[in-house]
Sequence to fold (365 residues):
Amino acid sequence: MLKRFALVIFLSLLLFGGLFGWKFLQISKAIENIPKPPPAVVAAARVQREEWQSTLSGVGSLVAVAGINVNSEIAGKVKSIHFESGQHVKKGQLLVELDTSTDAAELNGLEAVYRLEQTKFARSQQLIGRHFISKADFDINKATLDEAKAAVIAKQAAIEKKRIAAPFSGQLGIRKVNIGQFLAPGDSIAPLQQLQPIYADFALPEQYLADLSVDQTITLTVQAQPDRVFNGRISAINPGIDESTRTVTIRATLDNSELLLRPGMFVDVKINLNRFKSVFTIPDTAITYNPYGNSVFAIQADKQGGNTVQLKQIVTGEVRSGRVEIIKGLTGNEQVVSAGQVKLRNGMAVTIDKLPAPGEREPLQ
Fold:
């Protein structure tokens, strides 16, 4: 009885195993008959070796050659205004006049006193020659005359200071005064900036000090003019090193005849050096940028004569004319996907489009 039961179980397992194996073969053949998707079509670019001129890069700010707030030196009420906000002015051009009616009256009185003292002194000169007055009285009359003259000159200077003029040529900012307004000493009238030429102050690490010299050419860009490159020359190098940052401050002078550059703008500065470096480069379109690291899809030949892609992490350097320096991750013999990366996965089969790849060009020399 036990043997018969074991035989039944064995035959049942054999039957079910055969059915399962037959069904598995059916499913496997069905899967094999499903048509495979065609390889993804991508554009490719080969890693190129280029000779790039070595550069130094830094950041800084634009600084006016001369820039001040035009202030009133003495107190007074605004009588007239001779400029508009944003106006270009010449050195010595009158900007604001303060009321001088009281000062003019005081000046008339001081001039009258001065004329009287002149008369007294002229009489003293005659009398001392005849020994009718002492030398001490003569000296007192001379000092009184000088005092009266100094008072007249001081009042004339005070009146002149109430005619506020531009101390240098430049562009005025927004006007801060109105007619009838009382100005205290030091009150601002308007900012004044000399914009042509203009300075760019920036800093570089101290180890590059030997590569810098006065009159060396520089290029810079500003965010307000992203498509423009501005040229200038180093005009001064700070003799000391900043101990907190270990950097040296450099000043360059730039032509600003178009007035596109303004004081306070942030600048990216580059300085070309008299030496070259050999670099591997690829088009910037080939790189997938991520917070955790940049990567490319390198194209490799498979055993069937086709191509597959392998995801590689890379370290990038400078960017020039749409090409990126590869510091680490590629050896220089690879071909990378330059368009169509979005649809790719690691190990996926690809077909290379024969059209020119984005970023392909002759190497920079």
Q: What stands out?
A: The chain has a mean pLDDT of 83. The domain at 100-161 is CATH 1.10.287.470 (Helix Hairpins).
